[in-house]
């Protein structure tokens, strides 16, 4: 209800004057929603990509991993010219526990776009509505709890297939098992206060990053 009646009543006689702007159900702007949920060995508990913001030639993409353990490391490398076309920028330890609180990755995506690089970016952090390109976030489980994203090494091949909802690390399970034996959880970035408490008690991004 509004001061002039219900919304239904207010638009009862409305007409669509620009069907190229306001599309009908029969003629949608897109046949699927703008968000896609990916699965694969990098993200057994899934990852998220804004598929509507990915260029056609990046919907299916194979690239070489360049790994960074913070947003700042990733941004510095991109701006220093260390990232080339054909790479996949991996920014990890920015998830609910690792951040703590899931850093928003607009800065590296903006730099990638501004430099005109043809690369993908995957992270256990998150993105805002302003991000564009093949930017995959919410990778779960996150790096801070030993998710596969923590085991990726520079030079690994990563395969992205957004139409078929796939995100795969082209490394054998035997190699990943060996890497897991050698992995140790990093020291928490924040050790006192409410954020330290949050980091200890939060759940995965796949279950809402809420405190238990």
Detailed description of the structure:
The chain is an alpha/beta fold and 212 residues long. It contains 5 helices and 8 strands; from the N terminus they run H-E-E-E-H-E-H-E-E-E-E-H-H. It has an 8-stranded mixed sheet with strand order 1-2-6-5-4-3-7-8. Strand 1 and strand 2 form a beta hairpin. Helix 2 packs parallel to helix 3. 35% of the residues are buried. The mean pLDDT is 93.
Gross morphology:
globular
What is the subunit organization of this protein? single chain
User: What share of residues is helical?
Assistant: 10-25%
Report the order of strands and helices.
HEEEHEHEEEEHH
- Secondary-structure content class: alpha/beta
What radius of gyration results from the CA coordinates? 20 Å
Q: What proportion strand?
A: 15-25%
Largest sheet: 8 strands, mixed
The N- and C-terminal alpha carbons lie at a distance of 38 Å
Mean pLDDT: 93
Count of distinct strands: 8
What are the segments in which pLDDT stays under 50 over at least 5 consecutive residues? none
Read across the widest sheet, the strand sequence of neighbours is 1-2-6-5-4-3-7-8
Note the main attributes of this structure.
212 residues; alpha/beta; 5 helices
